[in-house]
Automatic annotation (TrEMBL):
Transmembrane segments: none annotated. PROSITE patterns: CHAD (PS51708). It holds the Pfam family CHAD. InterPro entries: CHAD_dom, CHAD_dom_sf. This is CHAD domain containing protein. It comes from Denitrovibrio acetiphilus (strain DSM 12809 / NBRC 114555 / N2460). It comes from the Bacteria. Residues 179-469 form the CHAD domain.
């Protein structure tokens, strides 16, 4: 079966010089399954499940059929794309199938294939897959070019239909994606950025409260961090007392998410921890995992209570009211965005340069953590203002920065996890096996941390070769 279709709003009956004949083959109710943010569809995959529980996975150029959505091969393919997100039922479709023949002016069949009509909520798309008969390839292509539509896979047809339903999550992006005018006053730009980040937080609250998967808290937490970084790095855009007030309020919100996120990370890595241990210590992981789960449940309850209390909604509303009201714009905020964006990025890079100077394998972990935070801040600035600069020049830099941040993140995780394990043993009443397992894990994590530190330092030195580019782009 083909996965290359002509996608249109309805079945074409005829175009100049060509007609189409259809024969109804049947229809089925199918459920589209995907992650909250449509990771499968946006990667070119489409997972449909039937009433009997079987599944169809469309991908570029192929269709795989599975008797069950629990099939090990299907789970492996899907998890590799969506994890740590989970699959959710997204939309129910009626999928009708037709055989289709394409005829020329002499009513001679020149191509045959299958056409799908996919419908939901009064909206529909048509996906027509035709294969030319021998010798009619050019004529078939000529006829298809006369039909108003787009070529794509079955997943592209489904994505178009999801868009037609008004489901904005098909375009979900945790990062602000803006097309900026260099002359726009910076307070308007920052207002758009803050509004987007508040929207991302709001979209993720239900997933946190209902504990759907750990990415809801992750995206929520990163949005809080982006807001806090912007308030710190791009100061004086709004009334200074307002900025000061909201720096405190968003800092407090960030503090509410810290332990819950730590527990998510620890539980996500519990199998990795167990693999680090010799056989005689593996049993110690059960007690530790149970502690992480109970702590996580308590922290999620605390966070959920806050999100449901009305305080979170008030924080968001208060901040949106400030950033969308001209009266709160400071004199600096009314200046064009481009020179101020350049200055903020330049200052952020200068801070990194100072922190990197003299850094070695002997540098304390806290100092390595500080430069990690500085790289996060400059990345956020580059994301905010990306459309103002030459993408061909910034893309390689951002790619290298991502690798560097991954390394610095792993280094910090190893360090924080060591401290957490040591504190647990010191303050808790654990079985001898669990205490020994924590000690062994701490030693392994220390070794990994040192290896990661050497890697991170190499990447930092390599990254500093972008200094001339920073000077060119952000002077």
């Amino acid at each position: 079966m083909t996965d290359n279709y002509l996608i249109t709003d309805e079945k074409p009956d005829s175009v100049e010089g060509f007609t189409f004949q259809y024969k109804y083959l049947g229809a089925e109710q199918m459920m589209l399954k995907d992650s909250y943010d449509y990771l499968l569809l946006n990667k070119g995959f489409c997972l449909l499940t039937k009433v009997d529980g079987s599944g169809l996975l469309f991908s570029a150029g192929s269709l795989a059929q599975y008797d069950s959505c629990d099939d090990a091969e299907l789970v492996k393919r899907v998890d590799g794309i969506v994890s740590p997100r989970v699959l959710l039922p997204k939309h129910e479709f009626n999928v009708s199938r037709f055989s289709v023949s394409m005829l020329d002016e002499l009513e001679k069949t020149i191509a045959k294939g299958i056409t799908y009509i996919i419908e939901t909520g009064g909206k529909a798309v048509c996906a027509m897959g035709l294969s030319p008969l021998r010798g009619y390839g050019k004529e078939t292509a000529k006829g298809l070019r006369k039909i108003e539509g787009n070529e794509g896979g079955f997943g592209d047809a489904v994505k178009l239909l999801v868009d037609k339903t008004g489901d904005e999550l098909i375009f979900y992006s945790a990062k602000p994606v803006l097309k900026l005018n260099p002359e726009t006053p910076i307070y308007k730009v920052m207002g758009e950025i803050y509004t987007h980040l508040i929207d991302v937080m709001s979209k993720n609250t239900d997933g946190i409260i209902n504990d759907v998967d750990i990415e809801f808290l992750h995206d929520f937490r990163v949005s809080v961090r982006r807001i806090r970084s912007a308030l710190s790095l791009v100061r004086g855009v709004f009334d200074k007392d307002m900025e000061k007030e909201f720096r405190v309020r968003f800092k407090n919100l960030g503090g509410l998410t810290g332990v819950a996120r730590d527990m998510d990370v620890y539980l996500d890595r519990i199998e990795d921890y167990e693999r680090m241990l010799p056989g005689w210590l593996k049993g110690g992981m059960a007690e530790l995992a149970d502690y992480f789960k109970k702590t996580r449940e308590a922290e999620y309850r605390k966070l959920s209570d806050y999100l449901l209390s009305g305080e979170f909604e008030k924080l968001c509303t208060d901040w949106i009211n400030v950033v969308s009201d001209d009266k709160y714009a400071a004199s600096k905020g009314k200046k064009p965005v481009l020179p101020l964006a350049k200055k903020a990025i330049r200052q952020a890079f200068n801070e990194i340069e100072k922190q990197a100077d003299g850094m070695s394998t002997e540098t304390h972990s806290d100092a390595v953590h500080e430069i990690r935070i500085s790289f996060k801040k400059i990345r956020y600035l580059l994301e905010f203002y990306s459309s103002l600069f030459d993408k061909e020049k910034t893309a390689p830099m951002l790619k290298d920065m991502k690798a560097l941040q991954d390394s610095l993140g792993d280094h910090n995780d190893y360090y924080v996890q060591q401290l957490a394990l040591e504190e647990l043993v010191e303050n808790g009443k654990w079985s001898p096996q669990t205490a020994s397992a924590c000690g062994f894990l701490s030693a392994v994590l220390a070794e990994r941390q040192m290896a990661e530190r050497e890697k991170a330092l190499r990447l930092i030195i390599q990254f500093m070769r972008y200094k001339p580019l920073f000077g060119e782009l952000f002077k």
